[in-house]
Write a structure and sequence with these properties.
Blueprint lengths: L7 H10 L13 E2 L4 H8 L6 E2 L3 E6 L5 H15 L3 E6 L6 H6 L9 E5 L3 H23 L7 E6 L7 H9 L8 H17 L4 E10 L10 E2 L4 H5 L2 E10 L13 E11 L7 E7 L10 H7 L4 E3 L2 E5 L6 E4 L6 H10 L9 H10 L1
Parallel strand pairs: 3-7, 3-9, 4-5, 4-6, 6-7
Antiparallel strand pairs: 1-2, 7-8, 9-10, 10-11, 12-13, 13-14
Length: 358
């Protein structure tokens, strides 16, 4: 009689003898909200879960588009509220403690470690040394849910330097790094992906974009090459718009804040090419409900009826007809609670074709 193969010994030997090898599946179990319900939904398929631990997420956009607000602000704060330790790597020397406090981030030593880095090599060494100690201390405990949860935030990849950049600057010879930065960033992200995959450790990074010179492909391009984009689980492209609306949605002439236009370029948990405008008023901060009206209207959940909109509750069958300006946060909470992901699965192919053609 043929004996069944027992993989336990092989699995244990494999993971101990070969660095970087891990077995089994590691689906994300911990998610951190971006602070906006619609953006969360487009990233993960859930209004309350945005960025997963165990993966790499990149927010890329022009200056002032809201990248740091979402990553170093909202994600750091929301991670801390879930008991996740935050390692904030500041490469721009721009994340002052006063600003972090203003957006609700706790800078206590037991909640946050802020590191200033300027070199790609230093960031790589920091993550590598941290994960080496993490594996030694918590590898067994991790499977029992006892290992601490950690979120690395790099703000930003675009400002990181290579040794070539530094050497040339010291010599006054600025010829460029001959593509070394793109290769270094790719190596950084690829290695990090493999190191954090089995653990509740995540990486979120911001990056810069530049205007495309290709008339047939006008979308902004992510700086630093495309290599690290392939290794990332989620990539969000951001553009800055002027917010010229008041709290009731009426048009005004003065600028009231930033309208961060977010386009999901890549996601392994939801369909790509979806977009949302996230409102960040200067006086009140990000509106977590911004973008929901457009999402529900596009899905046909809110149907226009004259100058008002009609919604039929899935749970009670109640018909609600009201003007957009009268839609409260409680109303949006009700719709989100009754919302079904299948409601958005309409003409997906047409959407993707239109995006490619544009």
């Amino acid at each position: 009689m043929t004996k069944h193969f027992d993989p336990s010994k092989f699995r244990k030997s494999l993971t101990k003898s070969i660095t970087g090898v891990h077995t089994g599946f590691h689906d994300p179990s911990t998610w951190v909200s971006t602070g906006n319900y619609c953006l969360n939904y487009l990233l993960s398929g859930d209004f309350h879960t945005g960025v997963p631990l165990g993966k790499v997420t990149v927010f890329a956009g022009e200056s002032g588009s809201g990248k740091s607000y979402i990553c170093s602000g909202n994600l750091a704060r929301n991670a801390q509220e879930q008991g996740i330790f935050v390692v904030l790597i500041d490469t721009e020397n721009a994340l002052d403690e006063t600003w972090l406090h203003a957006v609700g981030v706790d800078t206590s030593e037991d909640k946050l470690l802020k590191i200033g880095c300027s070199m790609v090599d230093d960031v790589a060494r920091t993550i590598s040394e941290f994960m080496k100690a993490y594996r030694e201390d918590y590898d067994t405990a991790n499977h029992d849910g006892e290992a601490p949860k950690v979120l690395f935030i790099i703000d930003s990849l675009g400002m990181l330097l290579t040794p070539t950049d530094v050497n040339q600057f010291e010599k006054g010879d600025m010829k460029g790094d001959l593509g070394r930065k793109a290769k270094s960033l790719t190596a950084l992200v690829r290695n990090t992906v493999n190191l954090i995959a089995p653990y509740d450790v995540g990486l979120v990074a911001t990056n810069h974009t530049y205007a495309s010179q290709d008339m047939f492909d006008p979308d902004d391009k992510v700086s630093g090459g495309q290599g690290f984009i392939y290794a990332s689980s989620i990539v969000v492209a951001m553009r800055k718009k002027k917010l010229k609306e008041d709290a009731d949605g009426k048009k005004v002439t003065d600028i009231r804040g930033i309208k961060a236009s977010c386009k999901i370029m890549k996601s392994r948990y939801s369909k790509p090419f979806e977009k949302v405008d996230v409102y960040i008023p200067y006086d009140s901060g990000m509106d977590p409900y911004s973008g929901l009206f457009e999402l529900f209207e596009t899905a046909g959940i809110l149907k226009k009826q004259g100058n008002r909109y009609r919604y039929v509750s899935k749970e009670t069958g109640e018909e609600i007809v009201q003007f957009r300006k009268h839609m409260t946060n409680e109303f949006y909470d009700q719709v989100m609670a009754e919302f079904d992901i299948k409601d958005l699965e309409v003409e997906v192919d047409d959407v993707e074709i239109d995006e490619i053609e544009n």
